[in-house]
């Protein structure tokens, strides 16, 4: 169902959350000490982080900012601090949700499910994969068998459209309309040039046969 990391220094609350979430079917890990929490985040790779604000060594705000420097994993603050300024600051430094103690268990579980669902949807949106070839929409790259190549903005849009229509024949007109929003002055040859450059980059990755030309109809992957 997902992996959840608990970063909470109050033993009773931490143990309560561990039991509650384990009983719901989640795989749960807790921070036993707070000097190397970011290392635990990197090694455990959670799908969701539950984070307190009042922690030893450094507060949850600073820790949230540190975590945000290397991952977009959803972070839910669970804390006894309940002012609007606390909540605003928590969201400003990168938190995704804010729950005050004492929390209502059914509502907490519902919000956890929502964040986990949102996180998975975000991952699916950021990366598309077909036949082992990955298209990363955030970094604008194509990767295959450990190799990676960068795409221009237009090339990225072409690949996104093709990846979104795998197994279908995409007409040149559909691509032109998607790329340039019906700008009729665009030379049709511009699309051909971009397709050629994408094929060269795919060839460099060892995936030269990904894009097929269907004569008189368009392209297909």
Question: Explain this structure to me?
Answer:
This protein has a five-stranded parallel beta sheet with strand order 2-1-3-4-5, with helices on both faces. Strands 6-7-8-9 form a four-stranded antiparallel beta sheet. The mean pLDDT is 88. Strand 3, helix 3 and strand 4 (75-79) form a beta-alpha-beta unit. It has helices spanning 11-23, 37-44, 60-68, 84-92, 105-126, 153-163, 172-180, 188-205; strands at 3-7, 27-30, 48-51, 75-79, 97-100, 127-130, 133-136, 141-144, 147-150, 212-214, 218-220. The chain has two domains: 3-124, Rossmann fold, CATH 3.40.50; 131-220, Arc Repressor Mutant, subunit A. The longest helix has 22 residues, at 105-126. The protein is α/β, with parallel strands linked by helices and 221 residues long.
Short description:
The chain has 221 residues and is of the alpha/beta class. It is 45% helix and 20% strand. A hairpin with a 2-residue loop joins strand 6 (127-130) and strand 7 (133-136).
List the helices and strands and how they pair.
Layout: E1 3-7, H1 11-23, E2 27-30, H2 37-44, E3 48-51, H3 60-68, E4 75-79, H4 84-92, E5 97-100, H5 105-126, E6 127-130, E7 133-136, E8 141-144, E9 147-150, H6 153-163, H7 172-180, H8 188-205, E10 212-214, E11 218-220
Parallel strand pairs: 1-2, 1-3, 3-4, 4-5
Antiparallel strand pairs: 6-7, 7-8, 8-9, 10-11
Keywords: DNA-binding, Phosphoprotein, Transcription, Transcription regulation
Pfam families: Response_reg, Trans_reg_C
InterPro entries: CheY-like_superfamily (IPR011006), OmpR/PhoB-type_DNA-bd (IPR001867), Sig_transdc_resp-reg_receiver (IPR001789), WalR-like (IPR039420), WH-like_DNA-bd_sf (IPR036388)
